[in-house]
Amino acid sequence: MTEQQFDREYLDAIQAAPERSDREYRALVKYMQGSTAIHHGEYVRTCLLPKIFTESTFARFAADIRVLYGIFRKVMDAYFADPSYRALFGFDARTEELILRSHHAESMLPMARIDFFYNEETGDYKFCEFNTDGSSAMNEDRELHNAQRLSTVYRAFTAAHSTRTCELFDSWVDAFVGVWKRVRKTDHLPRVAIVDFMECGTVNEFGIFREHFEQKGLQAEVCDVRELQYKDGRLLGKSGLPVDAIYRRAVTSDILDHYDQSSALLDAVRDDAVLLVGDFHTQLVHNKTIFRVLQHPATLALLTPEEQAYVHAHVPVTMSFAKADPEQVIREKDAWILKPLDSYGSRGVYAGVEYDAEGWRQAVESITDREGYLLQEFYMPYVTENYGFLGDSFQKARYYNLTGVYVYDGTAQGVYSRVSLTPIISSQYSEKTLPTLIVKA
User: Fold this and answer.
1) Is 242 strand, coil or helix?
2) How far, in Å, are 77, 252, 418 from residue 85 at the CA level?
3) Are strands 192-196 and 245-248 parallel, antiparallel or unpaired?
4) What is the reported pLDDT for 428?
5) Which of 18, 225, 260, 318 could cross-link 291 (Cys pair, CB 3.0–4.6 Å)?
């Protein structure tokens, strides 16, 4: 069976008992409101139909990730080896210094979430963004499956089919320890700090990760970057105990914005007194300029014909907004999206499809720092039907889809699925998160 056939089966079962489905969906929402999947005081919204992928589709994602990571490896090696190639990224001296002292060869991308727009009928897709620093939302998938078990249809579907969920916590601890042992060449387990700026992070999720580290025999604590201290060659957590390895959730841009307040972390990293799992070279992929760099002739020259074809098929056309003709961008409203180089959570993103002609002109003309923005081809997300709240009414609607693959130390580990009533899939708009079920077709 295909994803579309599984969806149809699930939707038919929802529609066969509308009153029960309404009642159970409201119970599901109530569960999420009291769950640990809370971010800045807001609970995670969802729909009644989970995201369903077949094992063969997931295997295809995993194989494609291996191709992508091979390309990333060549990009990173060239960055470290060639100053002229390094200049393509345009990083300031402070960022470049942090990148060049990192352990890129032993630990390229310990954690990433690769987001893309996947067409479930054709199998085509275009990348949206590469999240390395601060990859998040693992706890959302876990709690959403807990909530879905309140649904009769979910229980019946998982009983009738061979399904699995994506395990995203213990597998990360295993990957983290693997990186530690490979880089430090020891079997001694490290003492771990999970580090972010707490006003920016998903704090509840940090606590879940801490529990899983401890269940596997590692001491762990959650620390704000500003609570760290560096004394006598040892980095200390807020507990005052030494830290051997850091699970970095603080994105590079936030660290640079709080550079002086991050001195303990940065000094310890420079002295190699602590292992930063998620070192600063991940910025090469996290920063959206990677989309432009991947299409540059200097990068294509590094790649095999197959890798070049992969870039052309899946990387949307991208250029510096400074090199574009604003009037052409305004005329071709629905063809483009504007993205800041180094942001997250869709902050500062403008898509022509979201505006009328005059609103788009105003949005384009409002960008004064054109060097700080990329102009990118807009790729319309795939649309599926689902049930959820429209206002306070439980009803079916059409939702745009975004897929993310979690990759731990180079291995595809799970899927993060989001939908929205609008083509821009962001918490600033009508975004909902769906738990992902992998089905053996």
Assistant:
1) strand
2) 10, 21, 35
3) parallel
4) 61
5) 318
- The verdict on pTM exceeding 0.85 is yes
Domain extent for 277: 170-285
Our measurement of the distance from residue 165's CA atom to the centroid of its chain's CA atoms, rounded to an integer in Å, reads 18
pLDDT tens profile 218-261: 999 999 999 999 999 999 999 999 999 999 999 999 999 999 99
Domain assignment present for residue 364? The answer is: no
Q: Count the alpha carbons within 13 Å of 235 in the hemisphere toward its beta carbon.
A: 30
The structure tokens listed for 336 are 């483009």
The CA distance from 151 to 55, in Å, is: 23
Rounded Cα gap, residues 392 and 58, in angstroms: 35
For residue range 124-181, what is the model confidence (pLDDT) as tens digits? 999 999 999 888 999 999 999 999 999 999 999 999 999 999 999 999 999 999 999 9
Q: Number of H helices and number of E strands within the chain? A: 17, 21
Place of tokens 């003709």: 325
Q: Which residue blocks in 91-215 are alpha helix, DSSP H? A: 93-100, 138-148, 152-160, 170-184, 203-215
What separation in angstroms does the CA of 221 have from each of 52, 196, 228, 260, 368? 35, 12, 11, 23, 42
pLDDT for res 52 = 98
Mean pLDDT calculated for residue range 42-67: 97
Total count of domains within the chain: 1
CA distances to 167, 248, 344 from 414, in Å: 7, 20, 21
> Position of tokens 């009153």?
19
Q: Phi and psi dihedrals of 398, rounded to 5?
A: -95, 130
The answer to whether 353 touches 378, Cβ cutoff 8 Å, is yes
Asked if the structure places residue 398 within a domain, the reply is no
Q: Which residue has the tokens 């708009």?
A: 429
Note whether residue 274 is domain-resident.
yes
Residue 218 sits in a domain of what CATH number? 3.40.50.1760
pLDDT at residue 409 in the model? 96
